[in-house]
Structure formats: structure tokens, C-alpha cells
Write a structure and sequence with these properties.
206 residues; alpha/beta; Rossmann fold; seven-stranded mixed sheet; 7 strands; 15% strand
Length: 206
């Protein structure tokens, strides 16, 4: 009813790749799956730790277990790839089959390489940690971001490489609330939900 019959068929046909299924990626996965997008491949190399319990879907009862394998049991039919993502992997991996690539990984160099390779189908999550106000979250393109250190670094590196193609990003200009590590599910989860919303809009427009 919400998306219309043809719109819902588009969601069911869509192929989505999610890179990183932590505090942001796991919420994007959950939202997409429950919205009708079930042809989803997830890539991550980590196992759940105690510190993940406050913000990562799938962590309960799975400490020490592979994130992708645990999530594949929760979301029937998704494809898990347990893989450490680095620049060489991005360069070699075949992104062609996917309609959208969601970047929720933590490695800056990987994010930059992804932008160069798949900017046309990319939705990138920027810094979500150390923040507490979900209302500060913005959806924009990489060269219109502001107030986020990770975004600034990526912009600068892309400019150095003379790369000027835009792509969708989710970011927050909120000042970090702490110097050490710290994540709040109301913000990291909201990043994932914002990514899901943008992904659904792109699929329906396609």
C-alpha cells in the first residue's frame, strides 16, 4: 500500500550490498529487509564483542561469533561474506551485480577507494560515533558535507586524486561528545535507518 504494487516489486527485485554490519550497517540491513528488500549481501570480518551489545543488531547471545554468520541466521536468504575489506579487495571485487552499495565500514582508505569505483550506486555513512543527537543527522553529497572530520578527510583525499564525482552520504556535524570511543544506538541506528530510507528512494526511482 505504501509503495504501490510496482514499487514493492522494485524493492523485491533490488540487489543490495552492505559493507560493514555494525552499529550502522545492521540497522540498515534490518530496515531494508523488513521493507521488502531481501536480496542482500553483507560483508564483514569481525566477530561480536561485549562492547557491541549497546548498538549492534544480532549481538545478543552471539559474543565471539561471526557477525555475518549470525545475521544470516536472523535474516533468511541474505548472503554472508566473511571478508576483511582493504583497498585490494575493493579493486578486485565485482560490484556490477548490485543496484546499490551501502558503505558502513570504518576504514577511511576503503571508503575512498569505494567512492572512486562505485560512486554512481554508493550510499556512504560518515562519522556516527561520539554523538548523541539524532536530529543533527543530514543527508547530502560528499562535497556539501560540513562539520565532520571524516568527511573532510575524504573530501581532501578525493580532491588530491582529482576526483570530483558526487555521491550520497549520511553525516552529522554534531561536535563529538568524548575523545575516546563511544557510540549511542539512537544515533548509529538512526544513521542506518536514514541509509535505508535513501536506498528505498533510489530503488523506487530506478
Amino acid at each position: 500500500m505504501l509503495f504501490g504494487e510496482e514499487g514493492f516489486k522494485k524493492l523485491q527485485r533490488a540487489k543490495v550490498l552492505i559493507l560493514g554490519v555494525g552499529g550502522v550497517g545492521s540497522y540498515a540491513l534490518d530496515c531494508l529487509y523488513k521493507s521488502g528488500v531481501t536480496d542482500i549481501t553483507i560483508v564483514d570480518y569481525d566477530s561480536y564483542e561485549i562492547s557491541n551489545l549497546n548498538r549492534q543488531i544480532g549481538s545478543e547471545g552471539n559474543i565471539g561469533k561471526s557477525k555475518v554468520e549470525a545475521l544470516a541466521k536472523l535474516y533468511e536468504g541474505i548472503v554472508p561474506i566473511e571478508q576483511k575489506m582493504d583497498i585490494s579487495w575493493v579493486r578486485e571485487f565485482d560490484f556490477e551485480p548490485y543496484d546499490l552499495v551501502i558503505d558502513a565500514c570504518d576504514t577511511t582508505k576503503v571508503k575512498i577507494e569505494l567512492a572512486k569505483k562505485v560512486h554512481k550506486k554508493l550510499i556512504m555513512s560518515l562519522g556516527s560515533a561520539k554523538r548523541t543527537d539524532f536530529s543533527k543527522i543530514e543527508v547530502s553529497t560528499i562535497f556539501k558535507t560540513h562539520g565532520d572530520a571524516l568527511a573532510r578527510k575524504i573530501r581532501n583525499e578525493l580532491k588530491k586524486a582529482k576526483f570530483n564525482k558526487n555521491f550520497t552520504v549520511i553525516f552529522s556535524p554534531e561536535e563529538p561528545k568524548c575523545k575516546e570511543k563511544g557510540s549511542f544506538a539512537a544515533v548509529t541506528g538512526a544513521f542506518g535507518l536514514a541509509i535505508c530510507s535513501e536506498a528505498v528512494k533510489k530503488i523506487l526511482a530506478g
